[in-house]
């Protein structure tokens, strides 16, 4: 089965980043329907029925997340997480830069559903151009009466404020993002309390990923029940997969969850390995999840199947390694990343990523010692589940599975005193 | 800060439901104007926010896009995310270091170029990717980088 485009339906239409063309292709009809014909609760109900799950990585049911907001009359906030920084993931970037009005419409409809007058879109600092794209799009939406004090004449006020981060992966974690949005260091908060009860400025807050909020638009358009028919029972709808690394046609592809196998995505959609090479391993859900090897490529792409295969769907960032890639070198590269991005708040992550990095460094450079692989495993088990936020667990996902699946390759680095792959990929 | 940015800064102080949120946008203004965050500006920002300079330092040092040292007119950031590395990112950085005679995170003597290796910039499908002053350069080749360097140097020499 090929791609199934809901979010990307009109992405190739020239001028779709402008409001006129977006409207000509049905744009802002979902917002109209929501604000003019539906109660906020009815919109929430559609999202609940749709079985939409968070597309940022954790896969938490979106409707349920919204329903956690206490009904206590306090100011509520909606925060859109556009901090896309998970290595291998570049899907939100494409939505922001190419179909900004889809995101804005999704943010507005979702803010309406949860009763938030103020919505924030937090973008990673590198999306400076994306910030300008959204700024222009919001101005267009304001001129049309979609944003502001009186949305579509309904008397409802919904304002969108853009916020630019400044280079910190950890700010993709929702409580770290809220800290950053409050103008602080992006250290994750201890949970509970969860943002639903004490989020931005201590107020009830929903934080959703760019792709998640964009998906609210087709859900309102087609109805939650229809959306839920796409995909599988527990993994409903479509999902964007960013395919990158050693592959012929890297790109962002939207497919129905559970209806396409990893093999079909890699070969039929993304064109297979570069000529003369074979696939060696894949990280299917952004750099934080365990490797899969070609013997498991027939796994369908949905939350449950990938979990059963020992990995995770995560953000949908599919990083592909072919036979030239060194697994030890690649896990070192990823560990350098996590060490750099660890916020330093809790010890297992701060110290653990430093030690893992150091040991991987010496293994890759030929100075590995007997017992190093056991020490790596020991360090991983001391990080696993021991940290405030998921960064610690994320840091060990690929390494741990790499040690298991490619043990001989790591071992060879130590016994042969260097990388057996030469310097091809590191 | 120059007058234009000071006016923007005063706007920012009132843009958010709570004033504290203005800090990072203010630091962006400074970074954009100076190419880094000078010591004196830390005090300016602290005064605007009514917090201590130490607090401002604490926040700004958390974020990699805020620099403590001056950067070149062109800040060249080579993505070294795994997907870019699998597609030759290391070669691009090596090329830039050799071509410009600088070390990692170094700036050329004429103050024109700074080269940094940065973590994933979310252009994985266009690997290898580079950003120059935060403008994206997807699927970059050494040849493209060379012509960028030549063009930039020429413009500066001709007094542009």
Task: Provide tags for this entry.
heterodimer, A: 426 residues, alpha/beta, Rossmann fold, Ubiquitin-like (UB roll), 3 domains, 4-stranded parallel beta sheet, B: alpha+beta, Arc Repressor Mutant, subunit A, Glutaredoxin, 2 domains, 4-stranded mixed beta sheet, 7 helices, globular
Number of domains of chain B: 2
Strand content of chain A: 5-15%
Q: Low-confidence parts of chain B lasting 5 or more residues at pLDDT below 50?
A: none
**How many separate domains of chain A?**
3
Shape of chain A: globular
Which CATH first-tier class of the largest domain in chain A would you pick? Alpha Beta
List the total number of helices of chain B. Answer: 7
CATH architecture name of the largest domain in chain B: 3-Layer(aba) Sandwich
Indicate the CATH architecture of the largest domain in chain A: 3-Layer(aba) Sandwich
Describe it:
The complex is a heterodimer of chains A (426) and B (160). Chain A folds into 3 domains: 19-229, 3-Layer(aba) Sandwich (Rossmann fold), CATH 3.40.50; 238-322, Ubiquitin-like (UB roll); 327-415, de novo design (two linked rop proteins) (Up-down Bundle), CATH 1.20.1440. Chain A has 17 helices and 8 strands. Chain A has helices spanning 19-24, 29-37, 40-50, 62-67, 91-98, 100-114, 128-143, 174-181, 210-222, 224-229, 262-269, 303-308, 327-341, 347-364, 372-383, 391-405, 407-415; strands spanning 77-82, 118-123, 159-164, 205-209, 238-245, 251-256, 279-283, 317-322. The longest helix of chain A has 18 residues, at 347-364. Chain A is globular, with a radius of gyration of 22 Å. Chain B has 2 domains: 3-60, Orthogonal Bundle (Arc Repressor Mutant, subunit A), CATH 1.10.10; 74-157, 3-Layer(aba) Sandwich (Glutaredoxin), CATH 3.40.30. Helices cover 46% and strands 11% of the residues of chain B. Chain B has 7 helices and 4 strands. The chains are: A alpha/beta (426), B alpha+beta (160).
């Amino acid at each position: 089965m090929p791609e199934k485009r809901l979010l990307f339906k009109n992405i190739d239409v020239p001028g779709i980043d402008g409001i006129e063309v977006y409207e000509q292709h049905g744009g802002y009809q979902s917002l109209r329907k929501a604000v003019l014909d539906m109660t906020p609760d009815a919109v929430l109900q559609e999202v609940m029925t749709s079985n939409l799950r968070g597309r940022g990585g954790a896969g938490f049911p979106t409707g349920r997340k919204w329903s956690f907001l206490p009904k206590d009359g306090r100011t509520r906030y909606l925060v859109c997480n556009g901090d896309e920084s998970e290595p291998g993931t570049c899907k939100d970037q494409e939505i922001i830069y190419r179909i900004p009005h889809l995101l804005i419409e999704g943010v507005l409809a979702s803010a309406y559903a949860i009763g938030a007058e103020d919505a924030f879109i937090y973008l990673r600092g590198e999306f400076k151009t994306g910030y300008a794209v959204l700024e222009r799009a919001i101005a267009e939406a304001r001129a049309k009466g979609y944003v502001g004090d009186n949305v579509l004449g309904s008397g409802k006020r919904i304002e969108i404020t853009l916020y630019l981060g400044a280079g910190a992966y950890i700010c993709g974690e929702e409580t770290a993002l809220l800290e950053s949005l409050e103008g602080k260091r992006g250290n994750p908060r201890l949970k509970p309390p969860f943002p639903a009860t004490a989020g931005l400025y201590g107020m009830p807050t929903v934080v959703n990923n760019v792709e998640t909020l964009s998906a609210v638009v087709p859900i309102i358009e087609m109805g939650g029940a229809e959306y839920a028919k796409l995909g599988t029972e527990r993994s409903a709808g479509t999902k964007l997969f960013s395919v990158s690394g050693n592959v012929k046609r890297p790109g962002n592809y939207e497919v129905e969850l559970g209806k396409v196998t990893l093999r079909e995505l890699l070969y039929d959609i993304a064109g297979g390995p570069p000529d003369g090479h074979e696939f060696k391993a894949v990280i299917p859900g952004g750099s934080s999840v365990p490797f899969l090897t070609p013997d498991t490529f027939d796994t369908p792409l949905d939350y449950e199947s990938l979990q059963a295969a020992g990995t995770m769907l995560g953000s949908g960032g599919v990083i592909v390694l072919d036979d030239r890639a060194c697994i030890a070198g690649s896990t070192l590269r990823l560990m350098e990343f996590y060490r750099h991005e660890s916020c330093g708040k809790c010890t297992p992550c701060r110290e653990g990523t430093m030690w893992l990095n150091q040991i991987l460094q010496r293994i890759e450079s030929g100075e590995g010692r007997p017992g190093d692989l056991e020490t790596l495993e020991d360090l991983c088990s001391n990080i696993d589940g021991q940290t405030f936020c998921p960064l610690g667990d994320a840091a060990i996902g690929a390494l741990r599975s790499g040690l298991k699946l490619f043990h001989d390759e790591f071992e060879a680095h130590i016994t042969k005193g260097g990388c057996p792959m030469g310097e091809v990929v590191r | 800060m120059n007058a234009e940015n000071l006016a923007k800064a005063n706007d920012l102080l009132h843009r958010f439901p709570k004033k504290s949120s203005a800090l990072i946008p203010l630091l962006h203004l400074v970074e954009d104007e100076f190419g880094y965050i000078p010591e004196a500006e830390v005090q300016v920002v602290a005064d605007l926010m009514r917090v201590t300079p130490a607090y401002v330092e604490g926040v700004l040092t958390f974020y990699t896009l805020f620099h403590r040292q001056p950067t070149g007119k062109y800040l060249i950031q080579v993505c070294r995310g795994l997907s870019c590395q699998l597609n030759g990112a290391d070669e691009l950085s090596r090329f830039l270091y050799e071509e410009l005679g600088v070390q990692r995170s170094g700036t050329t003597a004429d103050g024109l170029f700074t080269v940094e290796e940065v973590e994933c910039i979310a252009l994985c499908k266009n690997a290898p990717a580079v950003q120059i002053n935060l403008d994206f350069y997807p699927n970059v080749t050494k040849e493209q980088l060379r012509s960028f360097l030549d063009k930039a140097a020429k413009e500066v020499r001709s007094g542009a």
